[in-house]
Design goal:
The chain is α+β, with helices and mostly antiparallel strands. It is built from 6 helices and 23 strands. It has helices at residues 5-21, 174-187, 205-213, 299-315, 317-320, 359-372; strands at residues 57-59, 66-71, 76-83, 92-95, 108-113, 121-136, 139-142, 146-147, 151-154, 163-167, 191-194, 228-230, 268-272, 275-279, 324-328, 374-379, 386-388, 397-400, 408-409, 412-413, 420-427, 430-437, 442-448. The strands form 5 sheets. Strands 3, 4, 6, 7, 8 and 9 form a 6-stranded antiparallel beta sheet that branches. A 6-stranded mixed beta sheet has the order 12-11-10-21-22-23, with helices on one face. A 6-stranded mixed beta sheet has the order 13-14-15-16-18-17. The longest helix is centred in the first third of the chain and has 17 residues, at 5-21. The relative contact order is 0.13.
Length: 449
C-alpha cells in the first residue's frame, strides 16, 4: 500500500488545529487588575521564577570542534567546562559566542568548543546562570548557577571508530522518536546523522527548541554523549521562523568554509575512521517557481553551489584517502526507470507535484560521486525502507529510511511503514549497513559493500 505523504501531513495539521480550537469561541485577554505589577518581559530577567537548564545536545561535530546547545527556562548566560578526564581536573571554561559581547538568551544557549584533538575523548558539563533582573548592563542581577551533569564525547577523525547511524523523517512524532532514541542508546554509534524532516512547519522558535533540545521522550539526553550531524529535509524549510534554525541547531563551523561558501550552513565532509561522511542538502521537494513558494525559493542555485563545494571537499586529503565515502541527504537521488517513483521528480510546475526523488541533484552530484568513488547514499523522505543496488551509470548503493508511521497510514494498516535507524560500520574492511526496524525491534535489511 502506498502512502500519500501530503495527505498524511496535511491531515495531521488539520487534526491538530481542530484539537486546539475545539469549536469554542475565543475571548479577548483579560486586562490586568488595578494596582497589579507590570508583567515582566522575557529579556528583563526571570525575577522570582524558578530556573532550569535542559540536557545538552552535541551538534555539528568535526575533528577539532564540537557544538553544544541546551535549553534554558529564562534569560541567562552559559559556559561549557571541558576536560580530558572524567574527574574534570584542569577543566577549561568556554564561553558562548565568539569575540566581543557574549550572547545571552531566554530559551537556548550555544557554545562552540574549539582547538580539540581529533579522535579524542573529552568530558564536559554545562553551567547556566540566570539573570533575575536585567534593566541594562549597569542594573542587572545574577541568580544561582545551575551546573549540569558530566557527559563525554569523542571527536571525529581518521582513527575514530567507524560506526554511524542515521535517523530521518521523525516529524515531531514522539512515540516513534522514543523508539529511535532507544535504539541509538543501544547501538552507541560514534555519530548520528539526522537526515531531515525533523520538523513539520515551524512558525516560532519554541517549536524548534522542543524538537531538537527538549523532545518529549524519556531520553531527552539523546545527544548528550553521541554527537549529531544535521541534514535539512524539505519540511525543515517550512514556516515563517525556520530561516533562523541556527539559533537552535549549530551551523557548521565558519572555518570549514571559504568566502564563497559562507551560506552553506549544513554541508559537511568529515572523516570518521575509515568512513568519509558527506552531508548534502537536497532542499525543497518542489521547483523554485512553484506557486506555493510565493517567490521565496532559491534552491537550484543552492544545489549548484553545493556541487562546487563538493568538488573541493573530495580533494581534501582526509576525504580523498577514506576507504568508504558515504553521502547523506534527505530526498533520494535515484529512482529506477521502471519504479513507480520515477516520473515524479519535481520538475513540473504543478500544484500537486513534488519530488519523490531529485533529478537535479542527481545530475549535479552523481558525476562527482562516480569520479571519487562514493559507495553509498543514505536518504529519507519516502517514509518507507528501500534499498537500490547499483545500476548502469550509478556505482553506488542507495538506502532510503522509513518514516514515523507505526504500521498504519491514513488508508489503514500497512506493515511496510515503520521508523528506522540505518546503522553503518566497517568490519574487516567492508562497510556493513543494517536497517533496524525500531517498531518491531528487528533487523529489516542488511547489506555489505
Amino acid at each position: 500500500m502506498k502512502l500519500n505523504r501530503r495527505t498524511f501531513l496535511v491531515n495531521s495539521g488539520t487534526l491538530a488545529a481542530a484539537a486546539v480550537s475545539g469549536g469554542v469561541a475565543t475571548s479577548a485577554k483579560a486586562a490586568p487588575a488595578a494596582g497589579s505589577p507590570k508583567p515582566r518581559k522575557p529579556y528583563e530577567g526571570i525575577g522570582d521564577a524558578p530556573f532550569a537548564a535542559g540536557e545538552p545536545c552535541l551538534q555539528a561535530p568535526a575533528e577539532t570542534t564540537m557544538g553544544v546547545a541546551w535549553k534554558v527556562s529564562g534569560l541567562s548566560k552559559g559556559v561549557v567546562e571541558i576536560a580530558d578526564n572524567p574527574e574534570m581536573r584542569g577543566a577549561r571554561t568556554v564561553k558562548a559566542g565568539g569575540y566581543g559581547l557574549v550572547p545571552i538568551d531566554v530559551s537556548v544557549l550555544q557554545v562552540r568548543l574549539e582547538n580539540l584533538k581529533p579522535a579524542t575523548t573529552y568530558w564536559y558539563r554545562t553551567v547556566s546562570t540566570p539573570f533575575t533582573d536585567y534593566k541594562n548592563i549597569y542594573d542587572a542581577k545574577l541568580g544561582k548557577p545551575v551546573v549540569g551533569k558530566i557527559h563525554s564525547f569523542t571527536t571525529m577523525g581518521a582513527t575514530a571508530h567507524s560506526h554511524f547511524c542515521m535517523m530521518c523523517d521523525t516529524h515531531a512524532r514522539w512515540e516513534p522518536f522514543e523508539l529511535i532514541v532507544a535504539k541509538l542508546k543501544e547501538l552507541r554509534p560514534a555519530a548520528v546523522v539526522w537526515a531531515g524532516d525533523a520538523t513539520n512547519t515551524t512558525q516560532e522558535k519554541e517549536t524548534a527548541v522542543e524538537i531538537f533540545l527538549d523532545p518529549q521522550v524519556k531520553h531527552r539526553d539523546y545527544a548528550a554523549d553521541i554527537p549529531v550531524f544535521f541534514v535539512a529535509g524539505n519540511h525543515d524549510f517550512r514556516g515563517s521562523w525556520i530561516s533562523k534554525l541556527d539559533e537552535v541547531v549549530h551551523a557548521r563551523h565558519p572555518a570549514e568554509r571559504t568566502g564563497a561558501e559562507w551560506d552553506l550552513k549544513w554541508n559537511f565532509a568529515v572523516r570518521l575512521g575509515d568512513v568519509a561522511m558527506i552531508g548534502l542538502d537536497t532542499g525543497e521537494d518542489k521547483p523554485d517557481g512553484h506557486p506555493k513558494w510565493f517567490g521565496l525559493a532559491n534552491f537550484s542555485p543552492y544545489r549548484r553551489a553545493q556541487a562546487e563545494w563538493l568538488a573541493r571537499a573530495f580533494e581534501r586529503p582526509e576525504i580523498a584517502s577514506a576507504p568508504h565515502k558515504v553521502v547523506f541527504c534527505h530526498i533520494p537521488l535515484y529512482a529506477a526507470p521502471d519504479h513507480p517513483d520515477y516520473p515524479h521528480d519535481g520538475v513540473k510546475i504543478d500544484p500537486q507535484d513534488y519530488a519523490y526523488w531529485s533529478r537535479e541533484c542527481n545530475e549535479l552530484w552523481n558525476p562527482l560521486f562516480e569520479k571519487h568513488g562514493v559507495k553509498l547514499v543514505v536518504a529519507g523522505h519516502k517514509h518507507c525502507l528501500r534499498i537500490d543496488p547499483p545500476s548502469k551509470g550509478r556505482s553506488w548503493h542507495q538506502i532510503v529510511g522509513g518514516g514515523p508511521e507505526l504500521g498504519r497510514t491514513h488508508k489503514g494498516p500497512d506493515a511496510s511503514r515503520f521508523p528506522t535507524v540505518i546503522e553503518g560500520k566497517v568490519e574487516n574492511g567492508k562497510l556493513v549497513v543494517t536497517a533496524h526496524d525500531v517498531w518491531k525491534n528487528r533487523v529489516a535489511a542488511k547489506i555489505t559493500i
